[in-house]
């Protein structure tokens, strides 16, 4: 593992060889974190404590650099489009985060304008405002937010997003550590009410992989992102069951590259190699690393 500043161009070269070898114009990464620096530093400090939300794990952040360096790095890797995943852990915070994200998207044209939400009285209003302002993807974090996604206060917000066809990347699996409302049950209740909601289940639903594959099989607007899944780090902790590989192959049009950049304890390239070694072939990789997201976001 090479710290940023050394070996970066070498890693960028290898990443570019990966996607040019597949005949792609670059990568699209639907799960990257950008947020106000003060908030991001708090997140990094949390990772340093090996806290319970990250399962008490040793989690060194590979790309712990200034914002401009992080966007430059994604461009050097050939990531054509990425997101600014950000999320509140308490009420009264989402609207402020959405304001920051709108500004970030304005000054970062390759970032898909991202917004977030939380169960609170004005949620429907600010979700509709974010959509009107051009938000193209939302992030919801059921574990950190510690809320039930089927909370009545979110009902009309989910409805608005389903109606607008805006994808929502949602951390709702019980990895790396479970929350009160994580797991397939609560989110299945949301989908029962809003079957057209375009949920992108983060981390392949880790570690309830097969339950979330089942939701994607049942609802054709449910997708999954690859974030951290299949890497050595996660395979040690919550291995993806080999018996589910044929289902993963069959859902090749509903799996999207996500990485958790910059908050990852290994180089970016490792996520790509982890997908490659699944052995599902170049067509699957092309769809996952670029084409599925290009179609979903009209890129
Ligand atoms: Zn993430």
Automatic annotation (TrEMBL):
Biological process annotations from GO: secondary metabolic process
Record domain Amidohydrolase-related: where: 28-299
Family annotation (InterPro entries): ACMSD, Amidohydro-rel, Metal_Hydrolase
Hydrolase recorded as keyword: yes
Keywords: Hydrolase, Lyase
SUPFAM superfamilies assigned: Metallo-dependent hydrolases (SSF51556)
GO terms, molecular function: carboxy-lyase activity; hydrolase activity
GO cellular component, one term: cytoplasm
CDD domains the UniProt entry points to: metallo-dependent_hydrolases
UniProt name for this protein: Amidohydrolase
């Amino acid at each position: 593992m090479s710290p940023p500043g050394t070996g970066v161009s070498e890693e960028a070269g290898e990443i570019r060889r990966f996607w040019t070898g597949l005949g792609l114009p670059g990568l699209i990464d639907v799960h990257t974190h950008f947020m106000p620096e003060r908030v991001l530093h708090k997140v990094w400090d949390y990772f340093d404590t090996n806290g319970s939300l990250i399962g008490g794990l040793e989690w060194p952040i590979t790309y712990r650099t200034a914002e401009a360096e992080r966007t430059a790095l994604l461009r050097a890797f050939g990531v054509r489009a990425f997101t600014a995943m950000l999320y509140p852990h308490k009420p009264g915070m989402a609207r402020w985060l959405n304001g920051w994200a709108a500004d970030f998207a304005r000054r970062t044209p390759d970032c898909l304008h991202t917004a977030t939400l939380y169960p609170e009285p004005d949620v429907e209003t600010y979700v509709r405002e974010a959509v009107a302002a051009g938000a193209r993807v939302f992030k919801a974090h059921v574990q950190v937010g510690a809320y039930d996604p089927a909370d009545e206060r979110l009902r009309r917000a989910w409805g608005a997003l389903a109606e607008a066809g805006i994808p929502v990347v949602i951390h709702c699996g019980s990895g790396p550590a479970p929350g009160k409302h994580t797991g397939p049950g609560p989110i299945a209740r949301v989908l029962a009410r809003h079957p057209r909601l375009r949920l992108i289940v983060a981390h392949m639903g880790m570690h309830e992989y097969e339950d979330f594959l089942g939701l994607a099989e049942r609802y054709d607007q449910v997708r999954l992102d690859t974030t951290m899944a299949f890497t050595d780090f996660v395979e040690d902790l919550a291995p993806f069951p080999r018996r589910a590989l044929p289902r993963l192959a069959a859902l090749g049009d509903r799996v999207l590259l996500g990485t958790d950049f910059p908050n990852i304890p290994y180089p970016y390239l490792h996520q790509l190699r982890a997908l490659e070694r699944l052995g599902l072939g170049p067509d699957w990789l092309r769809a996952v690393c670029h084409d599925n997201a290009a179609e979903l976001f009209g890129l």
